[in-house]
Amino acid sequence: MKRRHFIKNASLTGIGLVASSAAMGCKDPSEEKIEKTVMKQTKTPSPIAICTWRFTEANATAGKALKAGKAALDAAIAGVEVEEENLKNTTVGKGGAPDREGNVTLDACVMNSDGNCGSVVYVATITKVAALARTVMEETPHVMLAGAGAEEFAYSQGFQKETLLTEASKEAWHAWLKTSEYKPIINIENHDTIGMLTLDHNGDIAGACSSSGLSYKMKGRVGDSPIIGSGLFVDNEIGGAVATGMGEEIIKTVGSFLIVELMRNGLSPQAACEEAVRRIVSKNEAYTDFQVAYIAMNKAGETGAYCIHEGFTMMKYQNDHNEAIAVDFYHKK
Ligand code: ASP
Q1: Is the CB of 213 under 6 A from ligand 1?
Q2: Mean pLDDT, to the nearest integer, of 69-76?
Q3: pTM, whole model, 2 decimals?
Q4: Is the distance from the beta carbon of residue 192 to the nearest atom of ligand 1 less than 6 Å?
């Protein structure tokens, strides 16, 4: 890589630049100038929360928590919990749509700025699964717990056992049983998985992702949302990414990790999200039938988002302003 390009690519953190100067064992005056520029560019931006879909209250909750001085992961979990507890949301937490046998099973993961992560899959009795994923990260020697094991661990940690299938989601399931047609709908009710990225006062990034997965999935199916690198990835030197949509496609391309690695190589969050969507559509002609959407943020506080189909929204909270951003999309008819 040419030195000029390396500097450009390293400018997100400044760390790469300092390392390169040391490695080269020299320092000319132009480098000093560049270093100062990098320092200016890397001044910690004011806290930012972004999340998938139009989860206005969830994103505002995270943004306000950051403003109050909360650490990135605390804020992300506080934001995600708003939707986990929202019974009207049929794609996250309690009240989520069940699988085809009537079981609501939740998936979630979290990743912090130290590169630690926790995840739970196929949880049928706990609402606050992002907090549970964090507890797995902090209180066990493991990253991922599944099903009954995750639930038993949850009770031992003081989480309440709950019934996740509400009357409304039971009724919707009974209506679905009449045809039993499995055809995931693009942009279900305009809100699916909640994936959130937060950048706190210290400039640290963390993320959380929580979902009931695809409605009327097969019993036992797990999506991308609890898979570190697919539904969520954070590298505090670079930035983070989260995904929503057809989890199988996101897993096949390890979408969130891909985006962070593309940002590491110098792409903006926007360009990285676009490339990750391009990987999917270039390998799968059936993309006209499913949605995948990504959002990303880098250390400089730049954000980006891209999706396959029109209708995806990203929320962004910064400086007391919580904004819904209509996201550009690939499939222009
Ligand atoms: N990504 C989720 C899953 O595949 C679903 C979604 O976001 O719509 O489980």
Answers
A1: yes
A2: 98
A3: 0.87
A4: yes
